[in-house]
Design goal:
Blueprint lengths: L10 H10 L10 H31 L5 H34 L3
């Protein structure tokens, strides 16, 4: 998933969106809050992966004949994983940039 398409969105809009939905605390920009947010995101990605796997098993066993639920669960898990990998890559790029800086 390419998150480069999100560059047209202003950060004020994203901040307001997150605060309205209580995804972040207003004014809380500490490392601990960013880390906690990322850990929550990882847990959510893991839950979506587990849900998709359980839907696959149910479909394979014949307990579910609805392919729509299977497709939705797998798509959610795939998008969440792609987003998590994209964020991880940006964090690693930022870390490598910091390591290249001379003191």
């Amino acid at each position: 998933m390419d998150i480069a398409s999100l560059t047209g969105i202003q950060s004020d809009y994203l901040k307001t969106f997150a605060e309205e939905r209580q995804l972040t605390k207003a004014g809380d920009e500490s490392f601990g809050s960013v880390l906690a947010s990322m850990m929550d995101s990882l847990k959510e990605t893991n839950e979506l992966q587990n849900t998709a796997e359980s839907e696959e098993i149910r479909f394979a066993l014949g307990e579910s004949e609805n392919t729509h639920d299977l497709l939705v669960a797998e798509t959610k898990a795939s998008v969440a994983l792609q987003y998590t990998v994209a964020v991880r890559d940006k964090i690693i790029d930022g870390y490598q940039e910091l390591m290249r800086m001379s003191i």
